[in-house]
Amino acid sequence: MDLIKSQDQILKLFDSVLPAETQYASSIEWSDSYKKNKIVILSTEKKRKVIVIDEKKIPVYFTSETDFEGEIMLFFEDGSAAAYYSKELNSIALRFDPVRSSQYLISLEYEEESPLDKYGRVISRENVLYEDLSIPSVNYYAKILKSAYGYLKTEKFIFNSEDKFYVLLTHDIDYLSSWRLFLLARSFQLLLKLKIVFSMRTFLRVFGRSNPYLNCIGDFEKAEAEKDARSVYFFLTDSGNFLKAVFKKSGTVFVEKTGWLFERLKKSGNSLALHTSFYANKDPNKMMEEKMLLEKFLGEKVTSNRQHYINMVFPESWISSEKAGIENDFSMGFFDSCRFRGGITVPFHPLTEGESLKITAFPLNFMDRTYTKYIGNKVSSEKDLVNEIIGHIKFTGGLFTLLWHNINCEEGGFEKGLEKYTEILDLLKSQNAEFTDIEQLKKIFNV
Fold it and tell me: pTM for this one?
């Protein structure tokens, strides 16, 4: 991938992660010699090392073996110098390249050889960078640069300070109709897990008149209104009967009958978006068909999308989405872990072969089904996992995107689902998160 073509975007991205009066990233020089009031990146090659700052370990992927006579500012884990400071020239030399390292991460090129699951999704736990993706390295690179520029002014490397972070709440709406059949299937799942009492409670709801998956949306609205927050609702339009939903991975939303719900959600200040069906992720014509159907019943243009099953194939899914008229994609997350895919927590324009796409990618940090289906036995609670994730985002600045499905509620057969969601909202509010929406985020991060 050509560094020069994507360099400007990554520098702009650094400036958007940690906005400052001085646009520090734009002052970087690639050179073997110092320049006054500049941060200089020494010539590097592809070699992974780890920077250690205040017990935080930050991997970088392009490093230099060039030595320099000067004060050592930062160290690699092996004890060698990661950055030098020249007081005489008031300049800093880096023995790592944060731009090329960022490019390597957000290009997802390291996923090309990653094993896939039966649905064609990247298995994060078998990814070569699985451990590295436990932190948002790109955000940390920006924080290092900001701290370095602060050092040029004060000769103090201030790194342990928290930055403002934002929250985007999202919900995937896969099922609304055929709810009795889904409750029946869920009660059987619970029985197999030996949750006999809860299985019977779920089974008895099959004979009720109240649709739990619709009620759950109303519960979301109430809980979020208490925090003065709103959500983005992604509707799956490739609908069918129960069997089609199960075996062809579609849904039972039937947008033709959901106009009243659309109006209610919009009136409450929520955003409505497309949830592309499983088989449309690489088919712009199928995606456009689903998009036009949703637009017909919404009465407005649809510009945002998330792939069903988080079934993103890079770069084909983004290219197909762009061709279908999608401006914002929310599929960049792992199905089986809550690692930082791409090592980043801010919206950005994806890179493919050195070129930036027009579509904006919004990283996904936490999905409820990831916890309940894949890692629940490894982490004490959803709240604890979210707290760990936002610790990094709060420290470096950025965006936390939360996905909670409308089936994940007590009535829908998921124990304490709404209670857990409310606990997460309380946690985010207590951490001074700013709840916001898509358009505001694009302004904040200049994408």
Answer: 0.91
